[in-house]
Design goal:
It is a single chain. By secondary structure, this protein is α/β, with parallel strands linked by helices. It is built from 13 helices and 13 strands. It has helices at residues 22-33, 82-97, 104-117, 133-145, 167-183, 192-201, 245-256, 292-300, 321-328, 341-348, 360-375, 384-388, 392-405, and strands at residues 7-12, 39-46, 60-65, 124-130, 150-155, 186-189, 208-211, 231-235, 264-268, 284-287, 304-308, 332-336, 352-356. The chain has a 7-stranded parallel beta sheet, sandwiched between helices. It has a 6-stranded parallel beta sheet with strand order 10-9-8-11-12-13, sandwiched between helices. The two termini are 27 Å apart.
């Protein structure tokens, strides 16, 4: 295909390298695996410091836009004492509750940059990523001024049904969601329950919905080796109701009742915010924010992988780390909502043991099941075919087809 005949795909996102985030991982995968034979790919994103040593996908133009906003959310990039961690969280709550637009400066710059790089009469698609709100708002503005441009709203998280925000923010998200459904040509999101909810709200809108899950982006498979001590690894952060207290209680019970030998528990990327019981302090290791590339070998070398996600009535919640756990092919100890999509995926992949978030007896059983595998030097019979479907490249293939469908109406995917 001639360069001038290619579709110009513009990723509009705040989260992109060098920012370390699971949201960045999704966007870098889009940039990496979008079909360069059919698309010219650009990224308009947030400037967050030095970019000299950042490895970016080939044949992708990246435009970094600064944000000069003064009042911003506190970051958790480094380990903080428990009290400092809580004070940072309080500050962030104040910023959010006060409805302070953290990226308003970036929003203006991104809009200006888009207008410069959009070529007249060229087939153009803007993929705006949520979180945060500003990329969606910019895309809505561009769509109103250039109706011929196609707009894909990529909702990594739910909007109006988001369980992790207060009522005030949820109302704001609800308003944004209505505007997105009126403006977008396609909405992509990470799970079917979120899509089902959006479809109900968009009955009068001509819009395509598609599930594009998060995934893993490395060679799958575990290192067939057990550790001298049963080693459980958790990758990620803790916040709000997501905490390891029930897991800790279950672990203490197993150790005190001599059902398991003393294990090792590694928390990767946990910079504070949890209270470790005194009896576990010698076996629980917390490591500050760890780069994604460093986490994967640790997952593959672990004897079990811990997933913690409280149930809150919201359905369709996939923690991003579940896909890295699946790719590592080590038994998962899942302390989650047993009725939600993550539990079903683990079951379908035969990838581990599921317990209700607050049922400590079930958590004990899950830990013990993983422990017995380690003790007997056994492994699970993973559904490798299904796991491989969750490689990032496989998921982005769906996005490639969706973009093509926007310009070939007879083959539209619904």
């Amino acid at each position: 295909m001639k360069p001038e005949d290619k579709i110009h795909v513009i990723l509009l996102t705040v989260y992109f390298p060098p920012i370390l985030s699971v949201a960045s991982n999704r966007m870098i995968a889009f940039a990496k695996y979008l079909d360069k034979e059919k698309f010219n790919v650009s990224v308009v994103t947030l400037y967050s410091g030095s970019i000299e040593n950042i490895e970016l996908p080939e044949n992708v133009k990246v435009y970094y836009v600064k944000n000069s906003q003064f009042l911003k959310l506190a970051t958790f990039n480094k380990h903080s004492p428990y009290l400092i961690h809580k004070l940072k969280a309080l500050w962030n709550r104040i910023i959010i509750t006060a409805n302070i637009p953290e990226f308003s400066s970036w929003k203006k710059g991104a809009l200006k940059k888009l207008k410069k790089i959009i070529e007249p009469n060229a087939k153009t698609v803007i993929i705006a990523s949520f979180p945060v709100e500003e990329p969606l708002e910019v895309a809505i503005k561009i769509k109103s001024e250039f109706p011929e441009i196609k707009f894909i709203a990529d909702l990594r998280d739910a909007l109006s049904t988001n369980p992790f925000v207060n009522k005030q923010i949820r109302n704001r998200y609800n308003n944004l969601e209505k505007r997105v459904l009126k403006s977008a040509d396609i909405v992509t999101t990470v799970s079917k329950p979120i899509i089902d909810d959006l479809k109900i709200k968009a009955t009068k809108c001509k819009i395509i919905f598609s599930e594009i899950r998060n995934g893993f982006d490395f060679l799958p498979g575990s290192i067939k080796k057990v550790n001298d001590k049963f080693t459980i690894t958790y990758a990620g952060t803790f916040y709000a109701d997501r905490n390891p207290s029930h897991f800790f209680n279950a672990l203490i019970s197993l150790i005190e009742n001599k059902q398991i030998e003393t294990p090792v528990v590694n928390f990767l990327g946990v910079s504070g915010g949890i209270l470790i019981p005194k009896v576990l302090k010698q076996i629980v290791n917390c490591f500050e924010r760890v780069e994604y590339e460093q986490i994967i070998p640790e997952l593959k070398l672990s004897d079990a992988l811990l997933l913690i996600q409280p149930g809150n009535g919201f359905k369709g919640l996939f923690s991003s780390k579940i896909f890295d756990y699946l790719g590592a092919m080590r038994p998962i100890i899942a302390v989650i909502d047993k009725t939600d999509v993550a539990a079903k995926l683990i079951s379908d992949c035969n990838a581990g043991f599921v317990a209700s978030f607050d049922d400590e007896k079930e958590i004990e059983d899950a830990i013990l099941s993983a422990y017995k595998l380690w003790k007997n030097n056994e492994s699970l019979k993973f559904n490798e075919e299904l796991i491989l479907e969750h490689h990032r490249s496989k998921q982005v293939q769906k996005l490639n087809q969706l973009i093509i469908s926007l310009f070939h109406e007879t083959s539209m995917i619904r």
